[in-house]
Amino acid sequence: WVWVLQGWDRQDPPSPLTIPGGTRQSPINIQWRDSVYDPFLKPLKISYDPTTCLHIWNNGYSFLVEFDDSTDKSIIVGGPLENQYRLKQFHFHWGAINDWGSEHTVDSKFYPAELHLVHWNAVDYPSFEDAVMEGNGLAVIGVFLKLGARHEGLQTLVDALPAVRHKDTVIEFDEFDPSCLIPSCPDYWTYAGSLTTPPLTESVTWIIKKKPIEVDEDQLEAFRTLLFTSDGEEERRMVDNFRPLQPLMNRTVRSSFQ
Ligand SMILES: CCc1cc2c(cc1OS(N)(=O)=O)CC[C@@H]1[C@@H]2CC[C@]2(C)[C@@H](O)CC[C@@H]12
Ligand SMILES: [Zn+2]
Description:
The protein has 4 helices and 15 strands. By secondary structure, it is mainly beta. The ligand CCc1cc2c(cc1OS(N)(=O)=O)CC[C@@H]1[C@@H]2CC[C@]2(C)[C@@H](O)CC[C@@H]12 is lined by residues 59, 61-62, 64, 91, 116, 118, 129, 132, 140, 195-197.
């Protein structure tokens, strides 16, 4: 009867990848027609300071561009958020081929890649590591990447990737403003979810932009030249670093648009 109460009989059974007892796991499929317009959702305000950009780190799962989060210089506020959140890092998920790669899907459609900008609630919590463990600790902006025109802003990042080809390599990277990677269209979906990589904690308010950005084939191929493996190990290409879809369970996806 727990299965019926939780509606688990209506979804495919939770995969072993769902943390035991998880009720708000990510990623999910966003069924456009099931999302509910919420007129009380505010516009998302994004203000990043490019001088807070520190380095690019291949952590063996993706490449992370990390920011100095010791001040409120790079923050987001508004949208579904109760207060402002500080930018900590951004990274991507992508596929071996263009038919898949994103973590979230829209009406069961995959995009070739997805950008995540990870922010944490520095108003309520003393550090990122603490915020990772709290229900309102993190806010992640998701942006879909689709195949199209070359993205000039992304190119500066792509040009640096050969220097972080192997796991556990880091290079200095400064003066980058990631707002150039976020579509100007204000429309987004939002729902309560989790990290999609360990520790998989249910601490994320997801803000998924409706409009994708366009990147070209060479830029997607550049992502695929990265390696999961360290220098000296047998090479394994860094591709398909996305988590399988998780059951929606008792959640509603809200939209900022009608
Ligand atoms: C790139 C996927 C990734 C890595 C990390 C997080 C989140 C990540 O992507 S996602 N898709 O938003 O879940 C949040 C927790 C972070 C981790 C990177 C490594 C840490 C910073 C640890 O050192 C302590 C907390 C960890
Ligand atoms: Zn991610």
